[in-house]
Amino acid sequence: MKQKVDDLALFGGPAAFLHPLFVGRPSIGDRARLLERLNWALDNKWLTNGGPLLREFEERVADLAGVRNCVATCNATTALQLMYRAMELSGEVVMPSMTFIATAHAARMAGLEPVFCDIDPVTGCIDPREAEAAVTSRTSAIVGVHLFGRPSPIDELAKVAAEHGLRLAFDAAHALGCGYQGRRIGGFGAAEVFSFHATKVVNTFEGGAVVTDDDALAQHLRSLNAFGAGADGRIERVGTNAKMSEAAAAMGLTSLDAFDQTVRHNRANHALYRSELLGVDGVSVFSFDEDESPNCQYVVVTIDEAVTGIHRDLLMRVLRAENVVPQRYFSPACHQVEPYRSERPVELPHTERLADQVLVLPTGPAVTGEDIRRVCDIVRCAVLRGRRVTERFRRGTDQATASR
Ligand code: T4K
After folding, report:
1. 292: domain CATH number?
2. Which of 89, 172, 281, 298 sits CB 3.0–4.6 Å from 140 for a disulfide?
3. 63 and 150 share a domain?
4. Domains in the chain: how many in total?
């Protein structure tokens, strides 16, 4: 246990972990089954272009999301681009700034102008009133992000979209298996996008998918995904190559086999973090609604420096010195980075506050209860002595600067 400032590795104490404890360790599942699937693909001599593993993967994802169509792609950023294009959007697209930069960049790459609006400070998701306030005569759509697997306020957004004649779609990169009012994320808006990046709850090494109940949109997406070819193989429009390979699908199927187990593990981890950090003033662990079948892939905490006396960034240093590697998802927020910052400066107070305080802690199948107790022990030690840790760190840096 760390009981005093000197115990922290940042100030010379022994590091709590021998090896780095990461956020986003891949959920691989049964390795033997993965290798079996890869061998099968090699024997089958069909490696990409809509092979049997890919089709099985698409069917299983559609099933899990409760939708009619799944179009798998090489990553979610490309899937977002395809979605924006297939929806034939133009002009401005309103979206939250508190998201991975891919949500915005994909819009930009599709020739659109992302317009950022503020979030609900409690959920971190887009605030429908702020979305409405950002609508102009050039707006064609609203894009919600189910941040960390928490569903966006879908009904309210649908109402705003309908009132202004706008399309609605979702970046569901974090939300595979999560629900909203008894339905699985996937079938809301015109389409939704999942990510199967290595760090996601189900991974295909790299990968993504657009899911939709709209058959015509799905056909359009399939065409854009494969050089603009129609169902009969003839080229009918400009398209790209964003297909998912058989090797990626083999990984995805194996990771999907482990999905229930991964989520059970994640939920137990999340509950343990919550109980270990309960009552630590100035530290809040984002909660999930148990009824919305959260995948709990992200353990998100906020550090309020006004209360703790320690800034999130210094706590991150403290943790790193202990061999714990947290992430600042998503700091800076999209509107705080180029080109958006210079092109369309905007103040989004709730987003800026969250971006300044947010810290994502390690979870996933590789992270044990014992790991979590040790991580929380470090957090408690540093936060309960926040002002002293900050002072000590400042003194150390001042001395280092003076002796240079
Ligand atoms: N929309 C949203 C809301 C998203 O969050 C994302 C991606 C997207 C769209 C776009 O999806 P993709 O096009 O990527 O499919 C990571 C991921 O690369 C990215 O997929 C993810 N969101 C984002 C939140 O996190 P980085 O820059 O943090 O990755 P990196 O390499 O620093 O790794 C993060 C952590 O994962 C580290 O602790 C190390 C660990 N890791 C990483 C990899 C690649 C592993 O343990 N094994 C690995 O193989 O972006």
Report:
1. 3.90.1150.10
2. 89
3. yes
4. 2
* Whole-angstrom distance, CA of residue 288 vs CA of residue 123: 9
For residue 208 and ligand 1, the question of a CB distance below 6 A is answered with yes
pTM for this model (two decimals): 0.97
Determine if ligand 1 sits within 6 Å of the CB of residue 173: yes
List beta partners, residue 92: 113, 139
Could you tell me the distance, in angstroms and rounded to a whole number, from the CA of residue 197 to the centre of ligand 1? 6
Please identify which residue in the block is written with the tokens 């369309």. Answer: 344
- Check if 73 has its Cβ closer than 6 Å to any atom of ligand 1: no
**Å from CA of 199 to ligand 1 middle:** 5
Q: Is the CB of 195 under 6 A from ligand 1?
A: yes
Report strand pairing: 92-96 vs 113-117.
parallel
Residue 348 placed within a domain: no
Q: Which residue's CA lies nearest to atom 44 of ligand 1?
A: 198
- Domain residue limits at 140: 31-257
With a 6 Å cutoff on the Cβ, whether 327 touches ligand 1 is yes
pLDDT tens-digit profile, the chain (404 residues): 999 999 999 999 999 999 999 999 999 999 999 999 999 999 999 999 999 999 999 999 999 999 999 999 999 999 999 999 999 999 999 999 999 999 999 999 999 999 999 999 999 999 999 999 999 999 999 999 999 999 999 999 999 999 999 999 999 999 999 999 999 999 999 999 999 999 999 999 999 999 999 999 999 999 999 999 998 999 999 999 999 999 999 999 999 999 999 999 999 999 999 999 999 999 999 999 988 999 999 999 999 999 999 999 999 999 999 999 999 999 999 999 999 999 999 999 999 999 999 999 999 999 999 999 999 999 999 999 999 999 999 998 777 777 76
The residue whose two tokens read 């900050």 is 390
| Final residue in a domain of this structure, among 203, 237, 257 | 257
Q: Is residue 211 part of a domain?
A: yes
251 lines ligand 1 (CB under 6 A): no
